[in-house]
Target: GIY-YIG nuclease family protein
Amino acid sequence: MLHKYFVYITTNKYRTTLYIGFTNNIQNRLSQHYFDSQNAKKSFTGKYGCIYLVYYETFDYPKLGIAREKELKKWRREKKNKLVSDFNPKWENLNNQIF
Model:
């Protein structure tokens, strides 16, 4: 059985900061980001409050997902914004829509 792997982008309340990550359990990872934002504040997502999922891609193989994550991290902010806007035009919080 293949696992699903995710490359995802979260943002903060004001959409001023983006975080790009990779995981095989997106619900758990989003919970960790939320916990860090409320408690730890030592991680990037905790410090900047990047708890709102606005973009994701799924992959069947981790190598492909990791390569995509690295690719997205190299992009300029404008290109990342366009990617999110094309996928999620209103930049709605998708945390409760992904399973």
Remarks:
- Residues 82 and 89 are 9 Å apart (CA to CA).
- The chain is about 45% helix and 20% strand.
- The mean pLDDT is 93.
